[in-house]
Amino acid sequence: AKQDGRGVFRFFEPALDAAARKRRALELDLREAIQSGQFRLNFQPIFDLKRDRIGGFEALLRWEHPTRGNVPPIEFISVAEETGLIIAIGDWVMQEACRQATAWPAHVRVAVNVSPLQFRNSGFPSVIFQALSHSGLSPDRLEIEITESVFLDGETTVVTLLHKLRAMGVRIALDDFGTGYSSLSYLRSFPFDKIKIDKSFVDAVAEDRSAAAIVRAIVDLATALHMETTAEGVEDRDQLSELRGQGCSSIQGYLFSRPIEGNMVAAMIGSAMSA
Ligand code: C2E
Ligand code: CA
Ligand code: CA
Ligand code: CA
Fold first, then answer.
1. Measured between alpha carbons, how far is 272 from 210 in angstroms, rounded to an integer?
2. In this model, does residue 8 exceed pLDDT 60?
3. 126-131: long-range contacts at Cβ-Cβ below 8 A with a sequence spacing of 24 or more?
4. Which ligand 1 atom minimizes the distance to the CA of 112?
5. 251 CB less than 6 Å from ligand 1?
């Protein structure tokens, strides 16, 4: 038997498989990353098709590890969620996103991804409150992006909290729409400000008639419910013209711009780029 750091005897050490060891190493590195400030934010513009200008930017987390290099979010967000580290990381993201957004023109919003665990944490409303008060950002310039999975345990508490955030002036977007389950019932339970149409539909929108029909149905539904729509992952002009024709409010994707560093945002807003 061997003693680990916490004084627990492990009799089956060899059974700790390679995958578990990798995850454990990643967890330790994530803790270190928080301490030593290895995170930063990139921002991807969301182009408003109705007003023909950039309406906002989505904050996207970037981790530059000294030896691992750039670790993409899909490789560490799930570990951060399983270990609870997402609370501290998400807190930092919220503060930093609001802080940077105060330097942008007043009509430009910042969208921040909020993981279900972070959202359901009892400290979440005060995290938002503090990020807003410390930065001085007007609440209506902050949009939080949540996925349907926040509703999985306890729809009533989630809806109550959403109303509380809305009362503060914060905007709420439903992210990755169409990828989860029973999406439509959530649209009835809360009046989101925006629906983000998942890339998987956008990818096929110009070629595949059923994808185009689904996107049209989502846009029509959102419009009837007074919600805006953002098409995610728009990569080519054919997709753009199809989405524009369908009345989609805004687009986000490599066609307009990849995510950029925070210090490039002002220049991008300044150069009157048009989709
Ligand atoms: P998401 O919220 O759906 O973010 C959009 C992702 O699509 C981003 O990937 C973005 O870089 C990518 N993307 C945008 N346009 C295009 C395009 O035209 N083509 C392609 N192929 N990809 C495009 P990223 O930055 O790697 O983030 C992946 C996911 O990680 C995000 O998906 C989100 O779920 C999560 N994530 C990122 N930042 C945060 C954060 O601060 N907090 C939390 N909780 N999750 C985050
Ligand atoms: Ca998102
Ligand atoms: Ca998304
Ligand atoms: Ca996604």
1. 35
2. no
3. 127/90, 127/91, 127/94, 128/94, 128/165, 128/168, 128/170, 129/168, 130/95, 131/94, 131/95, 131/97, 131/98, 131/99
4. 41
5. no
Q: Which pLDDT score is estimated for 10?
A: 57
Query: Residue 199 Cα, ligand 4 centroid: separation in angstroms?
Result: 7
Q: What are phi and psi of 136, to 5 degrees?
A: 80, 10
> How confident is the model over 47-83, as pLDDT tens digits?
999 999 999 999 999 999 999 999 999 999 999 999 9
Maximal CA-CA distance, the chain: 67
pLDDT > 90 in the chain, percent: 83
For 254-270, write each residue's pLDDT tens digit: 999 999 999 999 999 98
For residue 58, report the distance from its CA to the centre of ligand 1, in Å.
Answer: 9
The 10 Å Cβ neighbour count of residue 187 is: 18
The atom of ligand 1 lying closest to the CA of 252 is 15
Whether this model's pTM surpasses 0.90:
yes
254 lines ligand 1 (CB under 6 A): yes
Give the number of the atom of ligand 1 that is nearest the alpha carbon of residue 145.
2
pLDDT at 1: 44
Torsion of CA 84, 157, 94, 31, to 10 degrees: 0
Give the pair of three-digit tokens for residue 47: 């182009």
